[in-house]
Specification:
With 234 residues, the protein is α+β, with helices and mostly antiparallel strands. Helices cover 43% and strands 24% of the residues. The strands form three sheets. The protein has a four-stranded antiparallel beta sheet with strand order 1-8-3-6. It has a four-stranded antiparallel beta sheet with strand order 2-7-4-5. Strands 9-10-12-11 form a four-stranded antiparallel beta sheet. Helix 4 crosses helix 5 and helix 7 crosses helix 8. The radius of gyration is 19 Å and the shape is globular.
C-alpha cells in the first residue's frame, strides 16, 4: 500500500495557511486530496462553480482573465507554496479567474465541505483566513495603484514579484527567475503592449540591469528595479 504524502509541511509553509496552529494544520492536511495537472491543462475557468482550494506542491500555474474571443490579461504566475481558489472558501461565488498549468504540476486539493467542517470546529482557521484575505485586498489596491504608474515602474514591479516567487540567487549576486516567460507574458502582467516591453527590456540590457541566461530572465541589479518603483511611489 502506497504511503500517503505528508501535506503538513506543504500547508505550514504555504502563503495561505502558514501561521496556523500545528493542530489546525494537521487537521487540514488529513483532508487534502492529490491532484496532478499536465502542462497546458486548465485547472478551472472563470465562472466555474467552486470546489475548494489548491495548494501548489510542484510546478507552476498562471492566473488569467479574459481570453477566448477577447484579449487575455495575465494576473500572476504562481509556484510552490502558493494557494489558488481560496476566495471560494469564504463566499462560494463562481471562480473569478482562469487557472492553467504552465508545466506539469502537483497540487493538494481541500474541498469546500471539508474546509467548512474543520473551520466550524476551529474558528481560528476562519480568523486566520480572513486576515490573509485582508492582506490580499491591500495587495490588490497596491496593484491598482501600480497600473497608474509609467510602464518602466510597472514592469520593474512585475520583475521584482517574479524574483521573489521564482528567483534563484547566483554566486555572483544576480537573481535568475526560474520561470520561462515571454515578453507577451510580461506585457500581460504589466498591462503593456509587447513592443513597449521589448523596448524597456532592451534598455535595461544595455544598462546591465537585466539579461537572459539559459532561456530565463536574469536580474543583474535589483536595486535599479526597486528604485524604478520607489521613485514613483514617493
Amino acid at each position: 500500500m502506497r504511503k500517503r504524502f505528508d501535506y503538513r509541511s506543504v500547508l505550514s509553509e504555504s502563503a495561505l495557511f502558514g501561521g496556523l496552529p500545528e493542530a489546525a494544520i494537521s487537521d487540514l492536511a488529513a483532508v487534502v486530496r492529490p491532484v496532478v495537472v499536465t502542462s497546458g491543462k486548465m485547472l478551472f475557468r472563470r465562472g466555474d462553480a467552486v470546489d475548494g482550494c489548491y495548494a501548489i506542491i510542484e510546478g507552476s500555474l498562471k492566473v488569467t482573465i479574459g481570453g477566448e474571443d477577447g484579449p487575455e490579461t495575465l494576473l500572476a504566475v504562481l509556484g510552490p507554496g502558493d494557494v489558488v481558489g481560496e476566495m471560494g472558501l469564504i463566499d462560494r461565488q463562481p471562480r473569478s479567474a482562469t487557472i492553467k498549468a504552465l508545466k506539469p504540476s502537483r497540487l493538494g486539493h481541500i474541498r469546500v465541505l471539508d474546509f467548512e467542517r474543520l473551520a466550524d470546529a476551529n474558528t481560528s482557521i476562519y480568523r486566520h483566513l480572513l486576515a490573509v484575505l485582508a492582506q490580499r485586498l491591500r495587495a490588490a489596491n497596491e496593484a491598482y495603484s501600480m497600473q497608474q504608474m509609467p510602464l518602466k515602474a510597472r514592469l520593474a514591479h512585475v520583475l521584482l514579484r517574479l524574483s521573489e516567487g521564482f528567483g534563484e540567487t547566483l554566486p555572483d549576486g544576480r537573481v535568475l527567475i526560474r520561470q520561462r516567460l515571454s515578453q507577451l507574458d510580461l506585457g500581460r502582467m504589466s498591462g503593456a503592449a509587447r513592443e513597449n516591453v521589448n523596448r524597456q527590456i532592451n534598455a535595461w540590457k544595455r544598462e546591465a540591469v537585466l539579461t537572459r541566461l539559459s532561456g530565463y530572465y536574469c536580474v543583474q541589479c535589483m536595486e535599479t528595479l526597486r528604485g524604478c518603483v520607489e521613485r514613483q511611489g514617493n
